[in-house]
Design goal:
heterodimer; A: 453 residues; alpha+beta; Cytochrome Bc1 Complex, Chain A, domain 1; seven-stranded mixed beta sheet; 18 helices; 44% helix; B: 498 residues; six-stranded mixed beta sheet; 17 helices
């Protein structure tokens, strides 16, 4: 029935049931199996609270969307709450909340994730709910039109009615050539309008198959009983042909990209700089995380210390380096202080990047990175949901859920020389894309007067 | 950074995370677009509510009068501290400088008599630890918080104590803070949510401290070092402070470390002034805030709420959950799941020693402002006029009682329950009796509090958005007052909801 994927060591560790969630070495224990239909199942016991979390990570995101259907993966996510053979529209969240649980769904470029946290005695309910919608989604036009409206309001709420909303979309559009990552997850109004019931049915059959998902359960559960329940509810769902992964490779960039946005909702200019980076599994990636921490983790970090506090050019300034399965974007962003110029802010941001390349990187900055890695790992220990999500994503993205135990070690190995090396390699002029946002009233002069009213 | 939150906010099924199929009335001529929630009742649900008991807090008093509350949690090698100083919050701002408590809190972190702001930051960041100070604009409390890995606790507590007792208020930091805060005022006014909250708070509380949602520019300009030194000296006193601790530490360890760090903070014997409640608004008002280029209307409907110790607190909590406590609330069901007007519609309330606010909120595309506001007000009316059905009531109560289990994952959440019990002088067994109290709430209780607190003559309505799209909807309600995005009145008319 169940085929063991992982080594005997892990399976043995699980066979000894007990109240401890961590091994003697502090490692998080889990089992990792595959059903005959290809569903990957990860279970991690943690009996410290009478709760559990379930996460279903589907191997589909906005990067998989076809032309003229931007936003579809996320619109589809909303349809997953509108009912299936044995669950009425809206009944999923009614059952979860009414039984004391919490839940949500979320979509990004690389995956679509559904999760619930519930009291420990509702394990079967959660497994049933996730299986019924994987098996038999109820697809109809009334539900689609209703959720299309909700998603379009989500777009207005988060982008169209907010200052810098246009900027957020432009950063990706300008920095990527590859269409997979070029468009926003929320998608365009036009494409959302074009989405049809047929699109939903095709997408469901193609991507929402057991062999294209990872199911993770973490918490106050018994691994054997849990895997048996999973087999009972998911075992009969048919496997589908494995969908083709999108082409994520980004051609090498040879020249800086740049544009300006006039934003009628913004009252201060903003400078956004994005550099294309390797995928998160690449050995250089963790060192790039450390570059972002040197620049902007904590108040002592360089961008805040120099650009905001000393030079007083920006209201805030930060750098971040989100995990991506494909080429990522290392982003640096600063909101221009009243009366200061975007050009001066941009120059100051780039100067700090040059200083990272040229060194020195202080010992305490490396120590900060190491301690940050240790603290980040604490979340996986204290939250069943966070642990479930991390195990599922590490399994899906890197075929290595044990990264939950080893990733902090990778950061521990990052040295000052690594930090300088990756900054030199990726944070280059040819590889950067700059978006300057100007309040519309100030845009005519091009001087970026700071948008003072 | 705020903008990164924007990126994360995109593309979830719901913004907030909570109960009820419901019989909302459809206004004539505005038929529902979708059937909304349908229950097939085929899922394997365990009927029993899992019985859990909240871990007990461990409490003690320090020699300087600070009350210590500890929740032990040894799952990860980290500890979270909060020194809550009663009497140092914005409620106690002098009338001449509204916002002084907030200014003082922010600037305490910007350097002490022996350490610069940079030195403090560097010492903390190196350890991936943090220390911060904050004060609510209208609350009586300020909080010095700190957290770090277990092996760095002495450093964290030492810096917390230094920031708490020895702030230098250097002029250069005051100047820098003023520049930064002026920019934050500009940022606030870009955001429709801020503009709505500012206007609703004014409508609810007038000039009372509870109306404050941001310091005023005039107060910022009036700020000087003497005012900061004076406020700090007079208001940061241990006499009524609470040190709340959660994490990898025992009561004994916490007590000895706290005595060592805060021993020099001496009891003053001074008392703090009692808080006075705001007067209730004379009339229900409708306010419009013009935000040009808006593509949505931000709608808020609110009233003053109640004191935390009010006997109606539990009933109002249940009533609020039925109406707008999450995706299973009536507002979400009607405005999103049936009508598709919005990404979300919720209600929430706060309570304090004197009172708080209750409000329902939603952001809808400009074109449906009228229909959405009509439906929202109708849902509130239903709560007043029709008793909640047996199943909806039972489901809501079960959600709240069963949900108690989830709080056991979060020691900081458990700690907050005990802090509330102490600060509001709730009974010792308050959290032990919580499930029984919620279970005892009846449909009549809910209807009674809905009538009492959500009556038409109390509901203050605010809309932020594009004038051409919003004003016709507001005109139907009678007279309304208009403001620009800077908070300045555009025109004033005697207004009264019909």
């Amino acid at each position: 029935m169940l085929r063991a994927l992982r080594t005997a060591a892990l399976a043995a560790a699980v066979a000894v049931s007990g109240a401890v969630s961590l091994g003697a070495d502090g490692a998080i224990k889990f089992t990792d199996l595959k059903l005959k239909n290809g569903l990957r199942v990860i279970v991690s016991e943690d009996h410290s609270a009478p709760t559990f979390s379930i996460a279903v990570t589907y191997n589909v995101g906005s990067a998989d969307e076809k032309a003229r259907r931007t936003g579809f993966a996320h619109l589809f996510e909303h349809m997953m709450f509108k009912g299936s053979e044995n669950v009425g529209p809206g009944e999923h969240f009614t059952l979860v909340f009414n039984n004391g649980g919490n839940m949500n769904g979320t979509t990004n470029q690389d995956r679509t994730l559904y999760f619930e946290t519930l009291p420990a005695n509702q394990l079967e309910l959660a497994i049933f709910l996730e299986s019924d919608r994987m098996k038999s989604l109820d697809i109809n036009k009334a539900n689609l039109d209703n959720q299309r409206n909700a998603v379009q309001e989500e777009r207005r709420l988060s982008l169209d009615n907010q200052a810098y909303g246009k900027t957020y979309e432009r950063v990706g559009e300008q920095a990527y050539d590859n269409t997979a990552y070029k468009h926003s997850v929320i998608g365009s109004m036009e494409d959302l309008n074009a989405a049809s019931v047929d699109d939903v049915a095709t997408f469901f059959k193609t991507y929402y198959a057991p062999n294209n998902a990872v199911l993770t359960i973490v918490g106050d559960v018994d691994t054997k009983k849990t895997t048996a329940l999973i087999e009972k509810y998911f075992g009969a769902i048919n496997k589908q042909p494995q969908p083709k992964r999108p082409e994520l490779a980004e051609p090498a960039h040879t020249a800086e990209r740049r544009s300006t946005i006039d934003d009628p909702l913004a009252k201060l200019p903003q400078v956004d700089i994005a550099f294309v980076t390797p995928p998160a599994g690449n050995p250089d990636f963790d060192a790039l995380d450390v570059v972002s921490w040197v620049l902007s983790n904590g108040r002592s970090a360089r961008l805040n210390q120099v650009v905001v506090r000393e030079k007083q050019l920006a209201v805030n300034a930060g750098a971040f380096n989100p995990d991506k399965r494909g080429p990522g974007l290392f982003q640096v962003s600063a909101q221009v202080a009243p009366g200061k110029s975007p050009a001066d802010v941009e120059a100051a941001l780039l100067e700090e990047i040059e200083k990272v390349k040229n060194g020195p990187i202080q010992d305490w900055e490396i120590e900060k990175a190491h301690n940050t890695a240790i603290r980040n790992q604490a979340g996986a220990v204290t939250s069943t949901l966070q642990r479930a999500i991390q195990l599922g994503e590490y399994a899906l993205f890197y075929d290595n859920p044990n990264l939950i135990n080893t990733r902090a070690d990778n950061y521990m190995k990052v040295t000052a020389a690594d930090v300088q090396r990756v900054a030199k390699k990726y944070l280059t002029k040819e590889n950067r894309s700059v978006v300057i946002t100007l309040p519309k009233s100030a845009a005519g002069t091009g001087s970026g007067k700071g948008g003072q009213q | 950074m705020k903008r990164h939150a924007l990126a994360l906010a995109v593309a979830c099924a719901f913004t907030a995370v909570v109960a009820a199929q419901q019989p909302a009335m459809q206004p004539p001529g505005n038929p529902s677009k979708a059937a909304g929630t349908v229950l097939k009742n085929k899922a394997p649900v365990t009927k029993e509510v899992l019985k859990v008991s909240l871990p007990k807090s461990q409490e003690a008093d320090l020699s300087n009068g600070v009350h210590l509350i500890v929740i032990e949690d040894h799952r990860a090698p980290q500890v979270f501290f909060q020194m809550i100083v009663d009497g140092a919050g914005g409620y106690y701002d002098p009338p001449t400088i509204p916002g002084l408590a907030s200014f003082t809190a922010s600037l305490m972190r910007e350097g002490t008599t022996t350490k610069t702001s940079e030195q403090i930051s560097e010492q903390l960041d190196r350890l991936a630890a943090a220390v911060g100070v904050s004060a609510g604009l209208s609350s009586p409390f300020a909080t010095v918080s700190g957290n770090g890995l277990t092996n760095n606790l002495d450093t964290v507590l030492g810096l917390m104590a230094d920031v708490l007792m020895n702030p230098s208020f250097a002029q250069a930091e005051i100047d820098r803070y003023k520049t930064r805060t002026r920019a934050s005022f500009i940022n606030n006014r870009m955001q429709p949510g801020f503009l709505a909250q500012e206007r609703l708070s004014k409508a609810l509380f007038g000039d009372h401290p509870l109306s404050r949602v941001a310091p005023t520019p005039a107060a910022l300009e009036a700020l000087n070092r003497d005012a900061l030194v004076e406020f700090h000296k007079a208001h940061y006193l241990p006499d009524r402070a609470v040190l709340a601790v959660a994490g990898d530490i025992s009561l004994d360890q916490a007590k000895s470390k706290a005595e060592a760090a805060f021993g020099a903070w001496k009891k003053s014997g001074a008392s703090i002034g009692a808080q006075t409640a705001p007067s209730t608004p004379q009339r229900a008002t409708v306010s419009f805030v013009a935000r040009p280029n808006s593509v949505q209307t931000s709608l808020r409907v609110g009233t003053q709420s109640i004191e935390r110790t009010n006997p109606d607190y539990d009933a109002l909590t249940v009533a609020n959950r039925v109406l707008g406590g999450g995706p299973t609330g009536r507002l979400f069901e009607h405005l999103r799941e049936q009508k598709g007007y919005t990404y979300g519609a919720y209600s929430s309330f706060s309570a304090s020693r004197i009172t708080g606010s209750w409000s329902a909120s939603t952001d809808v595309r400009s074109e449906v402002t009228d229909a959405a506001l009509t439906d929202l007000l109708d849902e509130i009316k239903q709560m007043r006029e029709v008793a909640v059905g047996d199943k909806e009531l039972a489901d809501t109560k079960k959600a709240m009682i069963a949900g108690f289990a989830l709080s056991l994952e979060s020691p900081n959440g458990i700690l907050q329950n005990y802090v509330d019990r102490y600060l509001y002088k709730l009974p010792a067994d308050y959290w032990d009796t919580y499930p029984a109290r919620i279970e005892a709430i009846t449909a009549a209780d809910i209807q009674r509090v809905a009538q009492k607190y959500w009556s038409t003559d109390k509901l203050q309505i605010v809309a932020v958005g594009d004038a051409a799209k919003v004003e016709p909807a507001l005109k139907k309600l009678g007279a309304y007052e208009s403001y620009d995005a800077e908070g300045r009145p555009l025109k004033t008319t005697g207004s009264q909801i019909q």
